[in-house]
Design a protein that fits this description.
By secondary structure, the chain is α/β, with parallel strands linked by helices. It is 34% helix and 22% strand.
């Protein structure tokens, strides 16, 4: 392939950082490659105040980029992998999943509180049903208010003295990428707040038929990250649920080489929670898919479907 690789991304500081990161990785792998960013507005950006479940879930952030791939306007679409629906679309391929950033969530409090020291009936901003459910499980007294927008907007809204929010919860990876970790008052432990499937991971998506672009992107792939996020997404898919429901998962390889996968399904009000965890032998993508699907079956056997319903 000759010419410039056109990389599609949403606008906003974090999305731009992510797309530029992919561009930089491409340049590092192929010093002669030329790239340019193309900014594309998505439905999720246009409907920036309504809760995600009302406008169709996180897929509203990805459809416009995929349309640009199909039209040939761009060669590569860069997404936060947790935003991509788990249902495969044969027209596209996840050509590269670079090494994952931190998967945890972080609490940011104007007054420096941790989750345990927030005052009674404190108000926390988040648009995530997964975060809301786990927050309520730990602190049933908390008031959860919808809070959407890019990271900078959410920080400004939540940290203003008259905002009505006592704190907000954001993905640590995004804060780290924008050099905003000085705002963090607590990194939430997984026992309290398990992350969304594939949280902290980026993906470079392209057309399945475009083998040239796939060859360009191949050196960017991080095999261990791909296996982990594949299992997490298979857990979500195996539950028959979408990414706007209170489902969490995290996978990692232990020091002994075993593949550890933990999944969690919560009632929306936090009153019930099912956490399942197992070790698997995973050395390829097919085994990762099976691990996620098997753990989902275990959760369903424990009553997960009733919680999601």
């Amino acid at each position: 392939m000759s010419g410039t690789l056109r990389i599609g991304t949403r606008r906003g500081a974090l999305a731009t950082w992510q797309a530029q990161h992919i561009a930089d990785l491409l340049t590092r792998a192929h010093p002669t490659v030329s790239t340019e960013l193309h900014f594309i507005e998505t439905e999720g950006d246009r409907e920036a105040t309504r809760p995600l479940p009302e406008i169709g879930g996180k897929g509203v952030f990805t459809a416009a980029l995929e349309s640009a791939l199909l039209s040939g306007a761009i060669h590569i679409a860069v997404h936060s992998l947790k935003d991509l629906p788990t249902t495969p679309d044969a027209r596209f391929t996840l050509a590269a999943i670079p090494k994952r950033g931190p998967a945890a969530d972080a609490l940011i409090s104007r007054d420096g509180h941790t989750l345990g020291t927030l005052p009674p009936a404190a108000t926390i901003g988040t648009s995530s049903t997964r975060r809301a459910a786990q927050l309520r499980a730990f602190r049933p007294d908390l008031q959860i208010l919808n809070l959407r927008g890019n990271i900078t907007t959410r920080l400004q809204k939540a940290l203003a003295a008259e905002s009505g929010y006592d704190a907000l919860v954001l993905a640590l990876a995004g804060l780290e990428r924008l050099a905003l970790t000085d705002q963090v008052t607590q990194v939430l432990p997984f026992a309290l707040m398990l992350p969304a499937p594939a949280q902290g991971a980026l993906v470079a998506q392209c057309l399945a038929a475009n083998e040239d672009v796939q060859r360009w992107l191949a050196p960017l792939d991080h095999p261990e990250t791909r296996l982990c996020v594949t299992a997490e997404r298979a857990f979500l898919s195996g539950l028959g649920s979408g990414c706007t429901l209170p489902v969490a998962a995290f996978a990692q390889f232990s020091s002994g080489g075993m593949f550890q996968l933990i999944g969690r399904v919560s009632a929306h009000d936090g009153s019930q929670m099912i956490t399942v965890e197992r070790e698997f032998i995973v050395n390829n993508v097919e085994a990762a898919v099976c691990a996620g699907a098997d753990l989902a079956l275990e959760a369903l056997a424990q009553g997960a479907a009733a919680l999601l319903g």
